[in-house]
Specification:
The protein is an alpha/beta fold and 186 residues long. Helices cover 38% and strands 19% of the residues.
Length: 186
Amino acid sequence: MREQHEDESPLRVAVIIGSTREGRVGATIGHWFLECAARRSDLVPSLVDLAEFDFPARHPGAPTPQIRDFVGEVGRADAFVVVTPEYNRSFPASLKQAIDYAYDEWHTKPVGFVSYGHGSRGLYAVEQLRSVFTELHTVTLRNGVDVDLLDEGLDGRSRAAALLLDQLCWWGLALRDARAARPYTF
């Protein structure tokens, strides 16, 4: 864990649970990761559970209050950790829908991934998410946390979580300073 400077405010990290399925494992994994982040004094984590948002079935002409709430959460965060399952070698439609509601709010912020699945540990979903988040002008982190639900739980994943949080903090602070110093152009 890095040392926090006195004049540096903690990094605001949104932990986004991407699955909305009944009986999902994502809530358990998301809360576990939130607890890992909450132990650090250099981070202020918040949970953004997509199951708590009532998004419309179709993209509306004007944002609904639920969409505005979600976009506000994205806008307030300095960094993100997306908790995603792998469904049919991809990520859930609920996550893609939510990602698409924001645009400028994602720019120049780091995104880390906590993935889970059977066998592949959710890594196919993460690779597809990297492409989506690259289009949104984010920095995706190389290291993440991946869980194979067939033969391991969260035991032993604490080191991976700590490394992800260290890297997320480094990138988050660097990009926050860069945004304050000069506008981003694309």
